Amino acid sequence: MRALIQKVQHAKVVVEQQTTGEIQTGLLVFLGISKDDNFEIGKKLIEKLLKYRVFDDEQGKMGWNISQAQGSILLVSQFTLMARTQKGLRPDFGDAMPPQEAKVLYEQLIEYTKQQNIKVETGIFGADMKVHLINDGPVTFNLEVTN
């Protein structure tokens, strides 16, 4: 499972000219789910994400996690993160979890994240989404968790 995270001042997802999720200070999280992933792996990723220190503390260093920064999460499904790109000129999505299964796991992870007392907004799984953001820094990290 992969998460491309960006520290943002503002981010929103628009589907068919309707905003489906919007946050101010927080993390925009693009989530890629592989065919080998499961809920336990997802929990490990969410727990790492929530503890990851990318927000400025009182000394101006990356010392605070999202809770300490009183931030929110915008969680967006992103199967293209699972693409194999080493060979050829076209991405290979063979490692991505099939959409029906990935949607169930994505929704379980949304609920799990909400249970951690973090404000969570989302996109719409499988939709053509337009993501608007103001990256703060810019600060962008790729988190990956496997078995």
TrEMBL record:
Under catalytic activity, the entry for this protein gives: a D-aminoacyl-tRNA + H2O = a tRNA + a D-alpha-amino acid + H(+); glycyl-tRNA(Ala) + H2O = tRNA(Ala) + glycine + H(+)
For this protein, the record's Gene3D superfamilies field holds: D-tyrosyl-tRNA(Tyr) deacylase (3.50.80.10)
Pfam families in the record, alphabetically?
Tyr_Deacylase
Q: Where is the signal peptide?
A: none
> Motif Gly-cisPro motif, important for rejection of L-amino acids at which residues?
137-138
Q: Does the keyword Hydrolase apply?
A: yes
Its keywords, alphabetically, are: Cytoplasm, Hydrolase, RNA-binding, tRNA-binding
Q: What class of enzyme is it?
A: hydrolase
**Top-level taxon in the UniProt lineage:** Bacteria
Q: Where in the cell is it found?
A: Cytoplasm
Gene Ontology molecular function terms on file: D-aminoacyl-tRNA deacylase activity
Enzyme Commission no: 3.1.1.96, 3.1.1.-
Q: What does this protein do?
A: An aminoacyl-tRNA editing enzyme that deacylates mischarged D-aminoacyl-tRNAs. Also deacylates mischarged glycyl-tRNA(Ala), protecting cells against glycine mischarging by AlaRS. Acts via tRNA-based rather than protein-based catalysis; rejects L-amino acids rather than detecting D-amino acids in the active site. By recycling D-aminoacyl-tRNA to D-amino acids and free tRNA molecules, this enzyme counteracts the toxicity associated with the formation of D-aminoacyl-tRNA entities in vivo and helps enforce protein L-homochirality.
Domain statement:
A Gly-cisPro motif from one monomer fits into the active site of the other monomer to allow specific chiral rejection of L-amino acids.
Quaternary structure note: Homodimer.
PANTHER family xref list: D-AMINOACYL-TRNA DEACYLASE 1 (PTHR10472:SF5), D-TYROSYL-TRNA TYR DEACYLASE (PTHR10472)
What protein family does this chain belong to?
A: Belongs to the DTD family.
The protein, known as: D-aminoacyl-tRNA deacylase
Q: Which organism is it from?
A: Acinetobacter pollinis
Q: Source taxonomy lineage?
A: Bacteria, Pseudomonadati, Pseudomonadota, Gammaproteobacteria, Moraxellales
